[in-house]
Write a structure and sequence with these properties.
It contains 12 helices and no strands. The protein is mainly α.
Length: about 220
């Protein structure tokens, strides 16, 4: 069993997360369901399930988990709700759920639905603000990096290559603020190149894509 876990961990990961989600939902407790609910654990396990399902290429399952966290099928409309009723951690998880939903929509061949989440500058600023930790400059930078990279991929999927390149270029400027941590800076440089690579391939610029690959992306 231990050998199976080391070579193929995701089935056990999913099982553990699903159990945590079920136990924290309050559905197994007697009496009032809301009274037995551990919201923090429920949201954290559900968000982790969304991430795991994306890794397993189960975009439909990931999207369903995102909807569970957000409590709505209309993911784009969630961004306009009253944010004052949520804790900072809950806001962060809900913002990450919307970013995961963007990826899931694109994988399902519905990039236009993803576009509603990241289309406007105000939406991106709101997402980054929710993801960022209070009084943490580094977390703030990473929050902007994640939202811009997601926006770039989404616009590329819709064929809006100019807007995709714009957001990819912004990730370059954001990454400059991460040079103090050389290890993380290298990781972000690779991620930035992947964003540009995706845009080049969508545009049919094979020479540009090859140049990016030769610049050292494969040494991540």
């Amino acid at each position: 069993d231990l050998r199976n876990i080391s070579t193929n961990p995701f089935p056990r990961i999913l099982s553990c997360l699903e159990k945590a989600q079920n136990l924290s939902s309050g559905s197994g407790a007697g009496g009032d369901e809301e009274e037995g609910k551990d919201l923090d654990c429920f949201e954290a396990s559900t968000l982790s399930l969304a991430y795991a399902k994306l890794e397993l290429k189960d975009a439909s399952g990931a999207l369903e988990m995102c909807k569970v966290i957000l409590g709505s099928d209309n993911i784009a409309a969630v961004a306009k709700e009253d944010r004052g009723s949520y804790t900072s951690e809950s806001l962060r998880r809900r913002a990450m759920a919307r970013l995961y939903a963007c990826e899931a929509f694109c994988r399902l061949g519905d990039p236009n639905s993803a576009l509603f989440i990241v289309e406007s500058e105000s939406s991106l600023q709101c997402l980054a603000s929710d993801i960022s930790a209070t009084n943490s400059t580094q977390h703030d930078v990473y929050a902007h990096f994640a939202t811009r990279a997601t926006a770039s991929g989404t616009f590329s999927s819709t064929g809006s290559l100019d807007r995709s390149k714009l957001h990819a270029s912004i990730t370059t400027r954001v990454a400059e603020n991460l040079t103090a941590d050389k290890t993380k800076g290298n990781i972000d440089n690779v991620f930035e190149k992947r964003v540009h690579l995706f845009s080049r391939l969508k545009e049919g610029d094979t020479d540009g894509a090859i140049a990016i690959l030769r610049s050292g992306m494969g040494r991540a």
